[in-house]
Structure prediction request, 231 residues.
Amino acid sequence: MISNDEWLALYTTIKLAGLTTLILLLIGTPLAWYLSKLKSRYKVILEAIVALPLVLPPTVLGFYLLVLFSPTNSPGKLWMETTGYSLAFSFTGILIGSVIYSLPFVVQPLQKAFEQLGDHLLEAGAMLSANSVDRFFTIVMPMTKASFITAASLGFAHTVGEFGVVLMIGGNIPGETRVLSIALFDHVEALNYGTAHWIAALLLIGSMVLLALIYLLNFNHERSIQVRSEH
Prediction:
């Protein structure tokens, strides 16, 4: 059965995934909008940087972030002098790592939706004297609502399943950096397969439910578009 330590790991996992998703929506939305409108030849370089976590081994990314977060290097030293505690092996450290690692899962669906939206609706809004902020909240967001839900769901689900980045940056500190994937690894190493099965089943069912919701939302969105086009 699942003990209090595992419930604490579940809380840390949900807290990490929730905050990561919120931050990614805040920084990923303007980044995706910028990339969707960028016409420069250097766009491919920016897209490659955003997509890099898709192909980079998590342990490699985690290792370099751990080096940067160390108090012996400038970013980690500056953080230590400002806050009084180390960025490595802290919740803030794994939160930053999670944001970087899950970035393409939020930016790419939004960028694709913004590109498919086109410019004619925004031009019509501009002719009605709507400023850029009004056009985004009254035209872009309602028209791309399904993509926002998909991006948030993918960012959340991907963060829940993180292992390599979290382990490299945060280690395994109960109540601070120990998430469910690390708890599962601990129990497998200790040959405690009973609890490992419970944790694995929890992650499997949660992932399946989330994916089913994403596909259901996309199906309903496409169906509503089809119905509107028929009328």
Observations:
- The mean pLDDT is 89.
